[in-house]
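Narrative summary of target 7.
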Amino acid sequence: MSNASLLASYRFFTAFQRYHSLASQQCLKRSGPRLCSQPQRQSPNNTRYASTGSAPAQKESLRPRNHYDLFPASLPSGPPPNGSFHVDPTTLRKEFIQLQAKAHPDRHHGADKAKAEAASARINDAYKTLLNPLARARYLLSLRGVEMSEDESIAGSPSDMAGGNLDASLLMDVMEVREGIEEAGSRDEIEEMKAENNKRKKASEDRLDDLFKAGDIEAARLEAVKLGYWVNVGTALEGWEKAGDGRVSEHD
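Modeled conformation, tokenized:
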């Protein structure tokens, strides 16, 4: 790389270190050193409904235990390892619209109206979570007792950085891509980078599918962090297009 490129990389890496220092301080204030040092784990629980016992418990068993239970037509096998990490957006949206139509508060009255509002809000939250691969990965980790904040899923935890859990080549790749975005002079260049970044995200999602099915939760957590980097790069690419800066396609 040229001297200018090295300087840009150095500045990015310095800002990167400052960010994680701040994230570490915020994590310590919010959760304490124990939660900031290692993710909390629980044994996987893929039971879709609560166990039944007495008659009241049987009614309780019909209540959805997780987001997947709300979409039995789209996600009949539930979460991994029985089901896939991948989701068909078209099928999921179709079922979402059907569910929202049934739960719409305007179709209910009195006490049922309040219940419908709560149901509608939960359906909406579940849909948004399952539709977004990164949010879906965070949610699946939470089902297994591993909580990740949005900051951690985008850049990793402070312990990941300090302990070398993240591949150094990943950070260099991210810096080089960001450098390319800053130096891009046409929309065609951005489109090419977007295509490459979409391939990276797809590869990461495929890897998450394998890891969740295998039950390797720690590796899945780190892969979710990796996916977060490429999602962040995608956001930067979208930002370039929205900003425009007077730059046009080579074919314009």
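The radius of gyration is 22 Å.
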